[in-house]
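Subject: Protein entry, chain in single-letter code together with its fold tokens

Area: Proteins and the way their chains fold up in space.

Attached in line: The record itself begins immediately under this heading.
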Amino acid sequence: MIGGIFGGIYASAGKKALLKAETRGRTDEQAAVISYFNAEGGCMSGFFGFKDKDFDGHLSSVVGGLNIKAMALNKLCLDESQVGEITPIMLDNYYYDKPRWLEQAVLPGSKGGSVMSTGSDAVGTYVKIGKDDVYRFSKYMMSCIFCSAEQIYYYSYRFDLTNLSTTEEAAELFYKDIDSVQVMTRVNETVKPNKGCLGFLQPPVYETYTVPTLTLTVGGASFSCSMRPEHENQIHGLKNLIRDKKSQLG
């Protein structure tokens, strides 16, 4: 047991060095988010840094500062009066592409500095199970779908709370060209952090979490939006509209 404790202390020291590398050059908020996703478990873990409610508040502030509908209309060069077939569909949720680990950070003194220095979307997504057993992610996605008499207009915007990386995507799709509209659920596995001061001595506990997305497929291309279960009714309305339009076109 003594060896396990010293091993845990050694691992913790190494993690602190990686964390220092990963947060170098970041804003206070970005550094706090990175630290939140990499906080040590144990009896002292709730006393310092971001707590679950702090992270939620920060995310809410970022989301609240974005007018996604206005951004979408501007990007697509649309007036809302042009797209009144159905109420605009607004989707949002965490975004997940691939797992991200603190071990990806480049240690101080090594060539290139921190992996975060590029602000690249290639760094993956941090995932954390909060003390309230709610899953949280380091990336978020917001989308709009507008429908005119002839076309569907798609817009998505995603951002990373740990850096300045953002991604916009916009597309105009004719009803006749849409092959499918699917709600897809991706199941992923992660390790649930052990609680207690000696949690690092306990064997890992694996859990799964789901990431629901709406995917529009057109020819060889697909467009996906993060969504939540409560968005299902909006998706049903979109499917019905597409079915009716394709039927009218023969």
